[in-house]
């Protein structure tokens, strides 16, 4: 069997729009990360960026389960040597910057390399239902829900 390498000129990127209204954050993020990576394509290669563009709307209406809104912490450092570590819980971040919460969840599921950063650039997240990417004619992407009873 022959191994084929896809040329950059042969890659066809589509645009998808995901409505996060009422979706569980982690389940949605895994499916969006797979699309950004290109794992849904038959020509998937781990060392190439074959993924599509994804627009996530209604990020402010995403759902966190099992008390993660209070328990989950996000950290960043101000650069100040003594006491510069800042901590925010997911509930506050969802209230103030929902785009950042969804972006962190999805980007955390991508590779931590230059290739992963290139994949993350194809992600666009908006808190409300409006987005400026109508000219790209994005297709609706249905996020699969957890199957009950199995």
TrEMBL record:
Coiled coil residues, start to end: none
Region described as Disordered: spans on this chain: 129-150
CDD domains: Ribosomal_L13
Record-level Gene Ontology MF annotations: mRNA binding; structural constituent of ribosome
Gene Ontology BP, a term: translation
Cellular component, GO annotation: cytosolic large ribosomal subunit
Keywords carried by this UniProt record: Ribonucleoprotein, Ribosomal protein
Quaternary data: Part of the 50S ribosomal subunit.
Described purpose of this protein according to its UniProt entry: This protein is one of the early assembly proteins of the 50S ribosomal subunit, although it is not seen to bind rRNA by itself. It is important during the early stages of 50S assembly.
Family: Belongs to the universal ribosomal protein uL13 family.
PANTHER family: LARGE RIBOSOMAL SUBUNIT PROTEIN UL13M, RIBOSOMAL PROTEIN L13
Name of this chain's protein: Large ribosomal subunit protein uL13
Organism this protein belongs to: Candidatus Manganitrophus noduliformans
Underlying gene: rplM
């Amino acid at each position: 069997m022959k191994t084929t390498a896809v040329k950059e000129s042969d890659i066809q990127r589509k645009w998808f729009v995901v409505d996060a209204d009422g979706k569980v954050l982690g389940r949605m993020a895994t499916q969006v990360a797979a699309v950004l990576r290109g794992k849904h394509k038959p020509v998937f290669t781990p060392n190439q960026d074959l993924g599509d563009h994804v627009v996530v709307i209604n990020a402010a209406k995403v759902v966190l389960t099992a008390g993660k809104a209070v328990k989950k912490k996000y950290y960043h450092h101000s650069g100040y040597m003594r006491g510069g570590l800042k901590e925010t819980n997911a509930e506050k971040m969802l209230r103030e910057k929902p785009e950042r919460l969804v972006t962190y969840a999805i980007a955390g599921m991508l590779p931590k390399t230059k290739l992963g950063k290139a994949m993350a650039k194809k992600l666009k997240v908006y808190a409300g239902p409006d987005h400026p990417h109508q000219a790209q004619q994005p297709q609706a992407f249905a996020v699969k829900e957890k199957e009950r009873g199995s």
